[in-house]
Amino acid sequence: MLVLGRKPGEYIVIDDNIIVKVVKSDEGHLRLAIDAPRDIAIVRGELYEEQQKQNKK
């Protein structure tokens, strides 16, 4: 796992077609903007974990 520090307005690029930008950061809360192709699924962690639990049943 790669861990990076970014400030609001800064971003990272993944595989030339996914951009993850920090749009707001305050008091332990972070807001991200993700620009990715429509065929890439983007799922919040808690929903992903729930899906994995359901798939195991």
Automatic annotation (TrEMBL):
Gene3D superfamilies: Translational regulator CsrA (2.60.40.4380). It is found in: Cytoplasm. Coiled coil: none annotated. GO terms for cellular component: cytosol. Keywords: Bacterial flagellum biogenesis, Cytoplasm, Repressor, RNA-binding, Translation regulation. InterPro entries: CsrA (IPR003751), CsrA_sf (IPR036107). Pfam families: CsrA. One of its GO terms (biological process) is regulation of carbohydrate metabolic process. One of its GO terms (molecular function) is mRNA 5'-UTR binding. Homodimer; the beta-strands of each monomer intercalate to form a hydrophobic core, while the alpha-helices form wings that extend away from the core. A translational regulator that binds mRNA to regulate translation initiation and/or mRNA stability. Usually binds in the 5'-UTR at or near the Shine-Dalgarno sequence preventing ribosome-binding, thus repressing translation. Its main target seems to be the major flagellin gene, while its function is anatagonized by FliW. Belongs to the CsrA/RsmA family. This is Translational regulator CsrA. It comes from Halalkalibacter nanhaiisediminis.
